[in-house]
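Recall from the previous chapter that SMILES is a line notation for molecules. Here it describes S-adenosylmethionine.
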Amino acid sequence: MVMQLEGVVPFGRSFDEYVKIFDLTARDLSKTILSVADGPASFNAEGTKLGYRIKSIDPLYSFTAEQIRNRFYEVVDNIIEQVERTPDDWLWAYHSSPRGLRENRERAISLFCDDYENGKEQGRYAIGELPGLKYRDCEYELGLCSHFLFLYSDHFDEAFHLDSILEMLRVCQEVRIFPLLTLMLQPSPHLRTIVEYLEKTGYTCEIRRVSYELQRGGNEMLKITKIASYTATLC
Ligand SMILES: C[S@@+](CC[C@H](N)C(=O)[O-])C[C@H]1O[C@@H](n2cnc3c(N)ncnc32)[C@H](O)[C@@H]1O
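With both inputs in hand, we obtain:
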């Protein structure tokens, strides 16, 4: 599907936020990582500088850095105003304030844009979208999905979520998804059914509390691993 930039809010998180969101250890970071729906996060830019092997995919990467940056500055004031109007919905331990949030998002998109053209040439940023990935079975050790699956449960149905997660599990040995809340701060209506399905079909699911919480109540990450003796696609 061709993405329309007018409908996109290109807000990206930093490497440090990803480490907290996904509870990433040095061992996790040493793996080959496929970061799905990565948008203008600076995880890849900062992680590559630190020597990690990260590939980011997103339909947004059909646009140029300039287009993505311009879109960010078209929407950022409005988004921060919305945050300021809903003070009960947010916790400020990490970003300190709406102003701090804005500064951190500006920093992330700036690092992303500076790295983007180079990273595209190196194949670190590629156009791609769920629920279909163009990678081989078990090509990556760790798959991450930040702020897309479950968060947009009101836009994408349960079948989309299940297909997407199974596809990530086909390509990656382990998958982590954050957050498990919707944009309305409700637990995703798809989560329980999907966890039950995965646990019946050869996967172990762990809902882990993490040290990052911006959306009130949004401090849980789903970690999915394959049970070696059970799963058809063994990595
Ligand atoms: C809220 S942003 C999250 C960006 C980044 N992961 C982060 O946490 O900073 C959601 C991203 O999902 C991407 N997206 C939309 N539809 C998608 C799809 N079908 N498959 C993969 N990514 C998609 C958007 O382009 C956008 O960059």
